[in-house]
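Thread amino acids onto this structure.
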């Protein structure tokens, strides 16, 4: 299946599939209620975005998203959650 945009490049099946999975992943991040699980799902979502950017031939954006969205942000959020739980006790 090829989806063509007027005057633009066409999307192949892998890109369309990743777009659908990324959309479902975004909904999953929003619908997850427990903070630690939400951070884990957010990390997986960052990985999906990095894969999508890679298939869209944007390796620099993909690498940035991989580092920030899938590694650094979840570590910072987990550290903040640990500090909040420690301060509450």
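Threaded sequence (89 positions):
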């Amino acid at each position: 299946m090829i989806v063509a945009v007027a005057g633009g490049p066409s999307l192949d099946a892998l890109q369309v599939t990743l777009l659908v999975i990324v959309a479902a992943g975004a909904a999953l991040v929003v619908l997850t209620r427990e903070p630690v699980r939400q951070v884990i799902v957010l990390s997986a979502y960052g990985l999906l975005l990095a894969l999508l950017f890679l298939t869209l031939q944007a390796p620099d954006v993909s690498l940035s998203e991989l580092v920030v969205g899938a590694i650094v942000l979840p570590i910072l959020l987990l550290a903040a959650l640990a500090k909040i739980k420690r301060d509450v006790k």
